[in-house]
Amino acid sequence: MTERTSRFGRLRRVVPQARPEGTSVEPRTARPAEARGARPRRRGAQPKVVALGGGMGLSASLAALRRITGDLTAVVTVADDGGSSGRLRDELGVLPPGDLRKALAALCGDDEWGQTWARVVQHRFQSQGEINGHAVGNLLIVALWEQLGDHVQALDLVGKLLGAHGRVLPMSALPLELQALVRGHDPERPDDVDTVRGQATVALTPGEVQSVHLVPADPPAVPEAVAAVLDADWVVLGPGSWFSSVIPHLLVPELLDALTRTKARRVLSLNLVPQPGETAGFSPQRHVEVLGRHAPKLALDVVLADEAAVPDRDSLIEAAERLGAAVELAPVARPDGTPRHDPELLAAAYDRIFRMHGRIGPWR
Q1: pLDDT band at 129 (very low <50, low <70, confident <90, very high)
Q2: At what angle do helices 98-106 and 112-122 cross, to 10 degrees?
Q3: CA 147 to CA 334: how far, in whole Å?
């Protein structure tokens, strides 16, 4: 094992223990980034980073990444069907705006302007009427969609208003339905596999999720999202709700094709703990394995995990190797013990990964 230290903490590149002669782990048939034609290191330049996900996991990643690059694009899932987003989606037939709103808020700066607008767009009305529970940012985004008739233009305008440190794009221009095959969704039939519909229901299922798919099955990707992935230096996938926020990006054919063809290097950022419901009881390596099953042709370069959240390092290494990836361990959780990523520590981990794997200069 090799270890690097800095004032931000440690990042450990984990190397598997020697295995007995005659045994091996066959890696995914993936070439290293250099062999894929990755761009050479650009001295003094900021990396072009694309982060994919949704919800609080993506927000955590964006809050970290905006600290190390000014060229940042978020590609956000659009399958949410709960809460304020679900109500607006049902009533107006629009994309669910909630995860897009959260991504924009996460990209707000730490100055007074940025923090004020972050609070405003996240504010939820409290009333006895129909506006109860709606977030200000959801209403603002939907209003601009109706005014401009263009999802991307409207989100760019909201980002400009907020002073966002990056761009937010939906992964598709269609509101999608997430469906899952779940074993034991009905506790009275623990061995039966049922089709569970809706992101909110999948996220809270008491059963074991076997796989997920989207309806429609081959939704078109937003062209700007595909272009951003193809032009990136780094693509970050995760953390977040595994089946309902992370994997859905791999189920959009054009987006998966871009992720497969891009010359960018790809890092998978793991969750700190399993999520009650959809990934209850999952080990870190199982998260990697189920992602690989949903996108068997996708290779990765790095799997990032919190060092305290990996009880079986060799198994995680084996799972990562099958996707062509190295494992990097770093302290990225908040010091108060809550299972949430610390933006400063996660930023430091991303920065060291970018530098160690042939990218830009130090964190600013």
Answers
A1: confident
A2: 160
A3: 41
Q: What is the β-pairing status of strands 193-197 and 326-330?
A: unpaired
Candidates 100, 118, 122; CA nearest to 163 is: 118
Of the pLDDT bands very low, low, confident and very high (cuts 50, 70, 90), residue 128 is confident
pLDDT for 312-356, tens place per residue? Answer: 999 999 999 999 999 999 999 999 888 899 999 999 999 999 988
Neighbours of 66 (CB within 10 A): 24
As a whole number, the mean pLDDT across the chain is 86
State the pairing for strand pair 193-197/234-237.
unpaired
Q: What is the 3-state secondary structure (H, E, C) of 256-324?
A: HHHHHHCCCEEEEECCCCCCCCCCCCCCHHHHHHHHHHHCCCCCCCEEEEEHHHCCCHHHHHHHHHCCC
The maximal CA–CA distance of the chain, rounded, in angstroms, is 70
Residue 348's φ and ψ, nearest 5 degrees, are -65, -40
With CA atoms as reference, report the closest residue to 1 among 309, 313, 293. Answer: 313
- Whether residue 230 has pLDDT greater than 70: yes
Q: For residue 302, give both structure tokens.
A: 């790095």
Residue whose pair of structure tokens reads 């076997």 in the numeric block = 210
| Cβ atoms within 10 Å of 6's Cβ, excluding its own | 12
Instruction: Identify the helix (H) or strand (E) that includes residue 235.
Output: strand 234-237
What six digits make up the tokens of 79? Answer: 């399958």
Kindly list the strands in the beta sheet with 265-269, ordered across the sheet, starting from the edge strand earlier in the chain: 2-6, 9-14, 326-330, 302-306, 265-269, 234-237, 48-53, 71-76, 167-170
DSSP lists the bridge partners of residue 76 as: 53, 170
